[in-house]
Amino acid sequence: MNTPDNCAKTPEMKKKTDMYGQLIIKEKADKHYEAGVGAMSQSQFDKAVSRFSKAILLQSHQTQFYVQRAEAYLQLCDFQSAALDYKHACSLQPETEAYPQRLAFIYYLQGQCLFDLGKFLEALESFTKAAELKPYFQPYHMRSLACLTALGRYSECLRLVSNWLETDGQSADLLILRARLHHQLNQMTLCYHDLRSALRLKPCCPVALALLKRLKEAAEHSHQAAVDKALNGELSDALRKINSALEYNPSKAQYYLFRGILYRRLRDFTAAIEDLVLAAEFCGVEEDPPQKHMQDNSEDLEEDAQTQLALTYNDFAIQCFSRGLHSEAIMLLNKAIEKQRDASELFINRGDCFFKLCDWTFALADYQQAEEMDPDNTTIWLRLAVIHNTMGLHSYNDKKYQEAADKFSVAIRYNPGVVQYYENRAKAYSKVAKMEEAKKDAISVLILEPTNDQVVPLLLSLLPGCSLTDIMSCATAQSVKTLLVAKIQAFKIAASKVSRVGRMALAKDDSQSQTSSQKLQADDCPEQKIKPHVAPVELDSKLFKTKQMNESVKRALQQRQPLHYDGPRLAPIHSVREEPNTQQRPYMWRKFGGFGLNC
After folding, report:
1. What does the alpha-carbon distance between residue 213 and residue 76 come to, in Å, rounded to a whole number?
2. Which domain holds residue 38?
3. Which residue in 310, 210, 312, 304 sits closest to 255, CA to CA?
4. What Gene3D superfamilies does the record tag this protein with (predicted)?
């Protein structure tokens, strides 16, 4: 018979037994925990770790046991074990914010110890973990930055700082830090702009001011080297030096002016225009705060930039003209005239372009405008003579003989030494029955050119029964000769006076003096023809393509990128002056080859 002791335990009895066992385990775990806490208070950290470990073995779900053991490990500098315990605590109570922050601090301590030992890569890993747990706490990021710097990974440092500036907004300290990184990476232009931005936020920052001063000193050193190279004719080397100066100080108007002059001398007109426009824009704004002497010089510097810009447009136009691109040359000269409206040479050059396009009205208007500005310039007289003679030829061909004679008279007034003008007017006078005037002009032709046989039939027809010898020895011929010699001598004296005054001279023509129209063809026919002739411009197809030049002009005038930009600009002469303030010489305007004039 079974006794009650032998009977199986009921469920209630089993439950009571389990509860009793759990109470015993809890009491044991609590005793170990309290013993561990006591050991901690006595700085017996090894014993504390042992006690907390026993408590964890008995009750592994108690978060506090892991936390206390982690603190004991931390006192023993066992950062890895401390981190593991706090990670376990975080998994048990993920809603508690204190545990991740404490874990981040442990990673920070671990990283700092590794950093002090020179183990920068391991330290970087620890600091990175700390920053991931506490992303808005900048000291952890700064320690990561210190590790990257120690490892020489400046590009990664730069990305890190740039991210902070994007997320946290600009601050003077971060901008200075990024400027120093740019300096370390030899990115001087970006360094300069960061320093300027930092000084706008914190004007008296000594670190930023000191570094900015170093940049400006380096820029000025390169600028002086560029000037020396340019004075020695080493323009390419000078360009490299001034590029370096602009990397160190990209807001210096004087440097852009100098580089624009170099580009013009190197015939890179598009780049020259870009730099000269920048020079004008930066005048008076590169100093922060502006200095008084810079303000005083800014107006002169801007005036130089505008003049150089006009010179560049003019030189670019000359290049177009020499290759037959007369319309493009006119567009460029229009730009030049906008910058320098008081330069008669620009109107002369534009008049030459209109002449080549057979637009006589506009050509004449430009030459007359130039004459108003410089009435004693024989260069303009020669062109006015040619244009009036050319227009006279067209009037003659249109049978407007009196109009043609009037135009030939104007041509003679401007240049009395050209045989063709008298011959043309003699034939025009003969058409309107002004025989006395025609006779004098025919005699003038033979005085200037005794071998001319084109006018002899006309002269003999005007004085029937007289021989050529009798005609040339008569009193009328002597009077005509005296008057003609006086006019030519007066013209030569005027021309010599202009050269002595030292006006802005145009470059000499490659061709010798000649007329722009062919001679009248005298024949036995009663109807005499006059045909205008303009010598064609010779093009070198090996050196130039029309499409390429058109695109270059288009880029210079229409497709230039906007210049109002505060950020960094990375890369990208006056023929007499290497530096705006080095030598005070007048500007020299180049001209076109013209149309056969000896100017």
Report:
1. 50
2. 25-178
3. 304
4. Tetratricopeptide repeat domain
